[in-house]
Design a protein that fits this description.
It is a single chain. This protein is an all-alpha fold and 90 residues long. The protein is 62% helix and 0% strand. The chain is built from 5 helices and no strands. The longest helix is centred in the C-terminal third of the chain and has 18 residues, at 72-89.
Amino acid sequence: MSSTSQKHKEFVAEPMGEKPVMALAGIGEVLGRKLEENGFDKAYVVLGQYLVLKKDEELFKDWLKDTCGANAKQQRDCYGCLMEWCDAFL
């Protein structure tokens, strides 16, 4: 990744715990609400979906687009955030 947001850096710097879904890079208030409405209220629940999809970039981005309407940048930011977190903590 060439550049990451402050939100991304803060997320990947520590264990996930009970962080809300909106703590994920690329997920703001609007997408966060849509994810919550679909049962993805915590960052770890989205992580679970990422792992169920076997960390596959294309499948995860498609799922994020279908589930909450994330655009390409939001998909990329969220995927990168989870990928880096997994590299550090799994």
